[in-house]
Write a structure and sequence with these properties.
Layout: H1 2-17, H2 24-43, H3 46-52, E1 53-60, E2 66-68, H4 70-83, E3 87-97, E4 102-112, E5 118-130, E6 133-142
Parallel strand pairs: 1-6
Antiparallel strand pairs: 1-2, 3-4, 4-5, 5-6
Length: 147
C-alpha cells in the first residue's frame, strides 16, 4: 500500500514538471537571462540591466522595499550591492510556462559575504517574451523562515 501511494504522488509530479519539447529552447534562453541578470548584478553593469529588464519592472526585496520602474530597480540594485557586499549567485530551480510569452522562474539566491558567510534566499522572476527576447518584468526576493 505504501508503494502505491508513492506511485500516485510521483507520477503526477513527473508529468507536470517536465518541459514540453517546444519550451526547451525558451528554457535555455531563460536560463541565460537569469545568468545575465546575475552577471549584471555582480559587475554592476547598468547597460546590461537596461537590456534585460522591462521599463515597468517591479521588484520586492527581502527587506520589504518595493522598487517600481527600471530606474528605481537599477538604483536599488546598485545601492543593495554597496550596502550588502558579496558574491551573488542564482540557481534556477524551476521554470513554469504560463503561456508562450510568460514564465515564472524560481531560483535559489545565495549571497556570500567577504567573510564567507552565506545568506540563503529565494527569488522568483516573472519573465515575458518582449520584442523577440525574454525580459524580466518582476522580481520577488524572499528570506525563508526559520520555523
Amino acid at each position: 500500500m505504501k508503494y502505491l501511494i508513492w506511485i500516485f504522488l510521483f507520477i503526477p509530479t513527473l508529468a507536470f514538471s517536465q518541459i514540453h519539447p517546444g519550451e526547451k529552447e525558451d528554457a535555455l534562453k531563460i536560463h541565460k537571462l537569469i545568468e545575465d541578470y546575475s552577471l549584471a548584478r555582480e559587475t554592476r553593469d547598468t547597460a546590461l540591466l537596461r537590456n534585460i529588464l522591462t521599463e515597468d519592472v517591479d521588484q520586492l526585496v527581502s527587506s520589504g522595499e518595493w522598487r517600481n520602474g527600471i530606474q528605481a530597480a537599477i538604483d536599488g540594485m546598485l545601492r543593495s550591492s554597496t550596502t550588502n557586499p558579496g558574491s551573488r549567485k542564482l540557481h534556477v530551480e524551476k521554470i513554469k510556462f504560463l503561456s508562450d510569452e510568460i514564465a515564472l522562474v524560481d531560483c535559489r539566491y545565495i549571497i556570500t559575504s567577504s567573510t564567507g558567510e552565506d545568506r540563503n534566499l529565494w527569488s522568483s522572476f516573472t519573465v515575458i517574451f518582449h520584442r523577440k527576447s525574454w525580459k524580466i518584468s518582476a522580481i520577488r526576493n524572499m528570506s525563508p523562515s526559520r520555523n
